[in-house]
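Per your request, structure below.
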């Protein structure tokens, strides 16, 4: 049981790293600040490469969330075992999944979102991403856990 939790933690950390890296790759910051000019990092400036990596990492994150959710339900852990920071992370991840799903829908053909809706959706998604990174750093430094 202990190794399963460690494996989930490693998968979550690697997924969080790649989804963040590829998400920031969707913005032209790696080319603009010459990070893509570093040997071996040229792929960071290629939109479609980072786009596919972002979708793959998002799929892994959603699968991990579903796995943990079912594991939590079937093991009957109880909602009272989740810590405050755990609830905060859950809400942020749920918001990221919903906003990311809406962004995927926005990219489908024959689907139209207004300019204001797209800007709001982008800002919400980016803000939730930054909140997750900050709370993850905080909980890592303070050694806080998802469950008690």
């Amino acid at each position: 049981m202990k190794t399963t939790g460690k494996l989930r933690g490693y998968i979550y950390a690697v997924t969080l790293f790649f989804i963040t890296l590829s998400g920031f790759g969707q913005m032209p910051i790696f080319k603009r600040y010459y990070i893509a000019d570093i040997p071996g990092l040229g792929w960071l400036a290629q939109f479609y490469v980072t786009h596919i990596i972002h979708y793959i990492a998002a799929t892994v994150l959603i699968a991990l969330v579903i796995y943990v959710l079912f594991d939590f339900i079937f093991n009957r852990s109880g909602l009272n075992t989740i810590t405050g920071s755990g609830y905060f992370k859950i809400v942020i991840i749920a918001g990221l999944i919903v906003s990311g799903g809406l962004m995927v829908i926005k990219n489908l053909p024959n689907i139209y979102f207004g300019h204001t809706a797209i800007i709001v959706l982008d800002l919400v998604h980016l803000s939730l991403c930054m909140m997750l990174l900050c709370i993850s750093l905080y909980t890592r430094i303070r050694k806080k856990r998802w469950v008690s």
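Residues 1-76 form one domain.

Regards,
D.
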